[in-house]
Specification:
The structure holds 2 protein chains of 2 kinds. Chain A has 8 helices and 12 strands. In chain A, the strands form 2 sheets. In chain A, strands 4, 5, 6, 7, 8, 9, 10, 11 and 12 form a 9-stranded mixed sheet that branches. By secondary structure, chain B is an alpha+beta fold. Chain B has one domain. In chain B, β1 and β2 form a beta hairpin. Chain B starts with 6 loop residues before the first strand and ends in a 5-residue tail after the last helix. The chains are: A alpha+beta, B alpha+beta. Chains A and B meet through α5 and α6 of A and β1 and β2 of B.
Chain lengths: 244, 87
């Protein structure tokens, strides 16, 4: 079936029905026009994934492989998979990144709890598109264990790398600090055209998007710290009223 | 000395990085970060050259003594060979 994902027409040739249901919110109304890419999973890829994901259904495993294959083909189409959570605040997108266990979902949940006009675009694996005005972040069907996200796109205004700390602090990162951290959160395809395109997209992402290192605890002050630095707005104007 | 085919060098965030692609990416994983002279020598040794030619090229490009240049080029070439990056 053909799906509209990250502004592309993607033909997914799945064998298991798992993916039909998983991607149904992205099913294209137009099943006949040409597509941007086609993806399927080879037996070799399936078996390799099955070894590392023991105990999961065949449909789940095929579904993981399908997304990986999509993401390896999209850099030449100006798009990049980013391992991050994308939150929207009032029409702008902010990416939160960190190794698993650094509190990404805790911090983004605090934003959702305390701030008005906020929603999750994708909690785990959004796709970014380079445009001449900067990057757009897209929700996709693949959005992590907590399944938080929606079928939407939003201009990306900041990258926020998280580290746990007893006190809250935030500082801007310089490009060389950003590249090392970003490379841990992307997928590098093996074919030359897509590998080169990936490196160029990461370079553009660093040039276009301000990046910060947030060292934070799990208090409301942590939200104030990242929110004010990234948006330039006063926290009090954005905070939900009590009971909201 | 000549570098194996299948590496690409790119400047990302102002830093030179090298990654393996195609067949080579199956045996080499990860990426290599290069400083400015490292990136210059990497490009130089994508064609077959001797250490001596590398020293001459480095001296022509940078304000460096021939003694220091020879040390740098030898160290660079040894690192490439030790990691299996040379043909």
């Amino acid at each position: 079936m053909i799906y509209d994902i990250a502004g592309l027409r993607i033909n997914i040739e799945n064998r298991c029905s798992y993916t039909d249901n998983f991607c149904k919110a992205y099913l294209s109304k137009d099943q006949t026009s040409p597509v941007d890419l086609t993806t399927r999973v080879t037996m070799e890829e399936f078996l390799a994934e099955k070894e590392t994901s023991e105990g999961f259904s065949d449909g789940y495993i095929e579904n993981i492989c399908l997304y990986r294959n999509i993401c390896k083909q999209i850099p030449t189409l100006n798009r990049l998979l980013l391992h991050a959570a994308i939150l929207e605040y009032d029409g702008n997108g902010y990416a939160f990144l960190g190794r698993s266990g650094t509190g990404k979902s805790t911090h983004t949940q605090l934003w959702l709890n305390y701030l008005s006009k906020t929603r999750m675009i994708n909690g785990d694996k959004p796709i970014l598109q380079a445009t001449d005005k900067g990057f757009l972040a897209y929700g996709t069907p693949w959005m992590g264990k907590e399944n938080l996200g929606c079928n939407a796109s939003i201009p990306l205004k900041g990258l926020c790398f998280l580290e746990q700390a007893p006190e809250n602090s935030i500082r801007k990162l310089i490009p060389s600090e950003v590249s090392a951290r970003l490379f841990a959160q992307i997928l590098l395809p093996q074919d030359e055209a897509n590998a080169v395109a990936t490196l160029d997209l990461v370079d553009r992402l660093i040039m276009y998007t301000p990046a910060y290192l947030l060292r934070c605890n799990i208090s409301e002050e942590a939200v104030q710290t990242s929110f004010e630095e990234m948006t330039g707005l006063a926290y009090e104007t954005a905070r939900k009223n009590k009971g909201e | 000395m000549k570098l194996k085919k299948g590496f690409v060098l790119r400047v990302v965030g102002g830093e030179s990085v090298v990654v393996p692609v195609g067949e080579l990416s199956k045996t080499f994983h990860g990426m290599i970060n290069l400083n400015e002279t490292g990136a210059f020598l990497w490009k130089f040794f994508t064609e077959e050259h001797t250490v001596e030619e590398g020293v001459v090229a480095l001296c022509a490009e940078y304000d460096v003594s021939p003694e220091q240049a020879e040390k740098d080029v030898r160290k660079f070439v040894e690192t490439l060979q030790a990691n299996g990056f040379a043909e």
